[in-house]
Hints:
This protein has 4 helices and 4 strands. With 189 residues, the protein is an alpha/beta fold.
Amino acid sequence: MSLLEYTPGTSFPGVIGRTADVSVPAWPRPNRARAGAPNVLFIVLDDTGYGQLGCYGSPIATPHLDALAAEGLRFSNMHTTALCSPSRSCMLTGRNHHSNGLACITEGSMGYPGSNGLIPFENGFLSEILLQQGYNTYAVGKWHLTPAEQTSAAGPYDRWPLGRGFERFYGFMGRAITSPPIWWRRRRR
């Protein structure tokens, strides 16, 4: 038996009888993507270029990425900012990295306009737009778009993935931590 749904704000189409056996329930229709809406898969790979992906002509075999690319759109006019956080902010908002406050990675913010590390909320994320259109949104991997001082358990959380339109997030907030180079580990005498 399918559920009887109605648009929120309209009159209740069910029946409220004297007892449950003569009543018909109805539920407010949840926000869903329209029928036939395309799936959206947005992949960001740090420190790579077109030369690493087979779908752009690389000799490196990337069969799974090639299969995804064959079924979707491939963009080839990316003007990189040469850093992960600013590039990621541009791709998610469609705006210049300076208008996103990320002239550098979040940890390198200088406190000047265009370099404060705080992406303005009026610069909507793709995830926020898709969520409003009834899509389910999920982020996986490195976020690195929240200022470091806002990534502790104390929050605030409005600049975290769940505060920017993602319903689920599995990943890490800051930059990838790697071991220091050998010269750093040497003892100074």
